[in-house]
Each structure stands twice: as structure tokens, then as C-alpha cells.
Design brief:
Blueprint (H helix, E strand, L loop, with lengths): L17 H21 L3 E2 L1 H4 L1 E7 L6 H9 L7 E5 L1 E9 L6 H18 L4 E8 L1 H29 L2 H25 L2 E2 L1 H31 L5 H33 L5 H28 L9 H12 L1
Parallel strand pairs: 1-6
Antiparallel strand pairs: 2-4, 2-5, 3-4
Length: 315
């Protein structure tokens, strides 16, 4: 017997919950925006430029003592941050002037100093990005997200109607802002991996919303006498098994990767998990019900259909 996460003939009244969902969505979006404004994002070396070293200690070090020790090396003021667990520390330093050899000299100095005070310490990775490259990455990242949203709006406008495009973009903006707000709240490192996760979330959410929008458009033509609220509830319930099954299977893999995967992709996986949950919610409760507020109605019989029916009766 096949597994069914959503029973047959499910008939949930999603439209009745739309005002509650709209209020929750607005509050969540405003809260995430406020976090972005007040706390900001913990930008990684990709966007800030500089030198980052992931250092593994045998036991969790005392951060103030470690900061003083790194600063005594004389390679610039160090910024420290726990990475995944207390014994893993990200050490950020200004990028030294010169070529890659200068970077290696700085790393060697820091390594020598820490190995003396913390036996058994190891350097898992070292990354360096110049200020010019980081500025370009910020610009490219913003363009990537902005253009993807623009192309989504244009696609849904031409594929369906303008109101489908508006509802989809509103839901996607909500998904992206909430994801960024999560990173502002947790202060997880925001780097190019997270930009890739945001773009993936946009693609996933768009796919989910297009499936529901396509069923709504189909039912608008099929049930011309049905109320628009009933059509939206019917369409969402018809696509609910597919939506839930897709989300659950993806989450099963991502949650396993979140807890068992390497630390370097923890932020990416966390963003994907949150994005799928938020994207599924916005597809079911926000974008579809928003069509009612935009004035979508069932399409009347086409004029040519009426003429053809009249001609048939005359004949």
C-alpha cells in the first residue's frame, strides 16, 4: 500500500485562514527586516575581504585570551567567532599587503604562536579575498538575487496573468527576507554559499507556486460558475499531496545533512531547510489566497463559444 502523507479527498479551507496568514506573514517579514536593520548580517570573508582561518582546538579556548595571543603576533587586530562548536574558531585578520606569499607568512606566524600555547591545534582551512574582489562579489550577489526576482515576475506575468506574477513575487520576497532575517538573528556566517542557497530557495518556491497557479488557472476555466474562494481551496487541496511529499522528501535529506554533514556547508543547509519550510507555507497560504485580494475571478464563457452555441441551435 503506497504511503500517503495527505489523505484522499482532503478539503482544508485555506482561504478562511488567509487574513490570519496575511497578518502572520506581514509580522514575520517586518520582524526579519528589523533584524536585518538592527543586527545586520555576519558577512564572511567573501564579502568583507581579508584573511580567514578555521582553527580546530583540542578543547574550547577562552576567546579573550586567544584574541590577545593572536594580536600579539603583530599581523593586525583579530576577530574571533565560534564555528559550529566551541572548539572550532574562525580567526579573521586584515589581508596583508603583497602576494600570496605574504598571506602564507601571516598564517605561518599565527600557526607557530597557537601551536606553542595550544598543543594539538590544527588549521582546517585558510581563505583570503582582496577588498576589490569582495566588492565585486557583493555587487554580483545583489544582481543575481535581483535579476532572478525580476525574471520570475516576467515569466509568471507572461505564463499566466499579471496578478499571478504579483502574488508570486510578493511570496518570494517574503521567503528571501525571512531567510536573511534568520541569518541576522543567528549571526551565522553569510558568504557566497548562502547566496547560492537563496537562489535555490527562489527556484524551489517558484516551482511550487507555478504548479499551484497552473491548477488554479485550469480550474478557473473548468468551473466557471464556482466562487473564486472555492476554486482556490480546490486547487490548493488538489496539489497538496505533491507539495507536501516534495517538501518532506527534501527536508529528510537536508536535515540529515544539517546534523551529519561537514561544518563548512552548515549555513547553506540551514538556509535550505528554512527556505523550504517558509516557501511551502507561502505557496499554500500566501500567494494563492493573495489572488483574491488582487481581484481574480472565474473567467466567463468566451464570446466565440456563445456564438458557436447559437449557430448550433439555429442549424
Amino acid at each position: 500500500m503506497p504511503l500517503k502523507l495527505v489523505p484522499d479527498n482532503t478539503n482544508i479551507g485555506f482561504v478562511k485562514l488567509r487574513f490570519l496568514a496575511f497578518a502572520f506573514t506581514i509580522a514575520l517579514t517586518i520582524g526579519a527586516g528589523a533584524l536585518l536593520g538592527l543586527r545586520g548580517l555576519n558577512l564572511g570573508v567573501d564579502f568583507l575581504g581579508g584573511l580567514t582561518m578555521q582553527v580546530e582546538f583540542k578543547a574550547p579556548p577562552e576567546l579573550d585570551t586567544l584574541r590577545v595571543r593572536v594580536n600579539q603576533v603583530g599581523v593586525g587586530d583579530a576577530a574571533l567567532q565560534e564555528f559550529g562548536k566551541p572548539s572550532t574558531i574562525l580567526v579573521r585578520l586584515p589581508l596583508p599587503d603583497g602576494d600570496q606569499a605574504a598571506v602564507q607568512r601571516v598564517v605561518a606566524k599565527v600557526r607557530k604562536a597557537l601551536e606553542k600555547d595550544y598543543p594539538g591545534v590544527s588549521f582546517a582551512r585558510v581563505e583570503s579575498v582582496s577588498g576589490k574582489v569582495s566588492d565585486e562579489l557583493i555587487t554580483d550577489g545583489l544582481w543575481a538575487v535581483g535579476l532572478s526576482m525580476l525574471f520570475v515576475a516576467v515569466f509568471t506575468w507572461f505564463r499566466f496573468e499579471w496578478y499571478f506574477g504579483v502574488s508570486t513575487v510578493v511570496a518570494l520576497v517574503h521567503d528571501v527576507v525571512v531567510t536573511l532575517g534568520f541569518f541576522a538573528l543567528t549571526q551565522l556566517e553569510f558568504d557566497l554559499n548562502i547566496v547560492a542557497a537563496v537562489l535555490t530557495i527562489i527556484g524551489y518556491s517558484l516551482n511550487d507556486k507555478v504548479v499551484i497557479d497552473d491548477r488554479i488557472r485550469e480550474n478557473l476555466r473548468k468551473y466557471r460558475q464556482m466562487d473564486i474562494k472555492g476554486i482556490i481551496d480546490l486547487s490548493v487541496n488538489e496539489t497538496l499531496p505533491r507539495t507536501v511529499m516534495t517538501s518532506v522528501t527534501l527536508l529528510a535529506a537536508l536535515v540529515a545533512l544539517l546534523f551529519l554533514g561537514p561544518e563548512v556547508i552548515f549555513g547553506f543547509t540551514a538556509a535550505m531547510v528554512l527556505g523550504i519550510v517558509v516557501g511551502t507555507y507561502s505557496s499554500i497560504f500566501v500567494s494563492s489566497s493573495l489572488l483574491i485580494s488582487l481581484g481574480v475571478k472565474a473567467k466567463p464563457l468566451a464570446t466565440e463559444d456563445k456564438r458557436a452555441a447559437g449557430a448550433e441551435r439555429v442549424g
